[in-house]
Write a structure and sequence with these properties.
10-stranded mixed sheet; 10 strands; disordered N terminus; alpha/beta
């Protein structure tokens, strides 16, 4: 009887997430339902011990997709699960997002998603990253614009807000990639063909000085990024822009590289 009593006491002393509800929770194509009637998808990293606090990447899917795609996408989930990052992918209403102005229900919905995730997983609140592709990238911009003060970094792919938008909040760091031949979410060239214009909004808001040419880099041989960094902003925040000559896609290894750098890991592919 003493042994049984001890085991029961030990069981109740273990945090809920360490008992393993995450093993039986919604995963991959099985959505996590919210009281509001909306939902999201989640993918835990490989070899997680069930206890260590997890960095989170909340990724907004592209137009006419759902969160079931990012949690199974090699260039998104393949990056997070190898780097100890919990991937969270909200589902947009009508498979889309309302990012056009600040009168959107999608920002509070995404905040609700993060709050719900923290009930099941031990989340490292200092390392919340917000990402997205295409329409989802514009939604990620909108989220950090309205609710980004506690976000560690925006990791955005091929989609922005208008550069004259006023953002009441912002994350600690901006990382954006865009192809100059993108004709879906057109590359936002500035005056005179300025290729640094895609992040003009943040450079102005953070009161950044002259950008620093950080040179070219590759994750794969067939695609080269040209990087510009603004690490001289009066706000103390940082902006990084990677430009490539391609079109509208998630570049091989780009999200993985951003996570490596943000988490202080050795760069690797995939």
């Amino acid at each position: 009887m003493k042994i049984i009593a001890f085991l029961i006491a030990a069981l109740f002393a273990i945090p809920a997430y360490a008992m393993g509800p995450w093993k039986d929770a919604c995963q991959l194509d099985v959505p996590c339902e919210l009281p509001s009637g909306r939902s999201y998808h989640v993918k835990a990293p490989d070899d997680w011990d069930g206890e260590t606090p997890l960095p989170v990447l909340m990724h907004f899917h592209g137009w006419m997709r759902t969160g079931a795609l990012p949690v199974q996408h090699q260039r998104i989930s393949g990056a997070t699960r190898r780097r100890g990052v919990l991937l969270v992918a909200p589902n947009g209403n009508g498979k889309s997002w309302d990012f056009w102005d600040d009168a959107t229900d999608d920002v509070p919905f995404a905040a609700e998603v993060l709050a719900d995730v923290a009930k099941t997983y031990p989340v490292d609140q200092s390392r919340i990253y917000v990402s997205g592709y295409s329409y989802g990238s514009a939604m990620a911009w909108r989220y950090v614009c309205e609710n980004g003060n506690d976000v560690a970094a925006l990791i955005a792919v091929s989609g922005t807000l208008r550069q004259n938008v006023i953002c009441p909040q912002g994350p600690r760091e901006i990382r954006h990639v865009h192809g100059t031949n993108d004709t879906v979410m057109d590359f936002p060239f500035g005056q005179g063909g300025d290729t640094t214009y895609p992040v003009a909004l943040w450079r102005e808001q953070f009161k950044c000085g002259q950008g620093r040419d950080a040179g070219p880099w590759n994750a794969v041989d067939f695609l080269t990024f040209q990087r510009t960094v603004w690490d001289n902003c009066e706000s103390g925040q940082k902006v990084t822009l990677d430009v490539h000559p391609g079109g509208h896609f998630i570049p091989h290894g780009w999200i993985a590289r951003q996570l490596d750098e943000l988490l202080g890991l050795e760069n690797s592919y995939p």
